[in-house]
Amino acid sequence: xxxxxxxITDQKHNFERRETNNLGTPYDFSSVMQYSNRAFSKNGExxxxxxxxxxxxxxxxDSMSDYDILRVNRLYNC
Length: 78
Hints:
The chain is 13% helix and 0% strand. By secondary structure, the chain is mostly loops.
């Protein structure tokens, strides 16, 4: 099944790959900056999945994760 059939057409740009700078930390699914699995969905189905665990839920954080805090501290030399 092509997951890209589920996104809102004018939101396609949100699925383009981008280079990131995680400041020496691993990818963080519990970050407050993480989109939810169903972000930009036109039918409520998932538009994003983890490569390692397709059932993983993410994007519902209501506070900064430990890695969020570490990245801010590294970015601003705190």
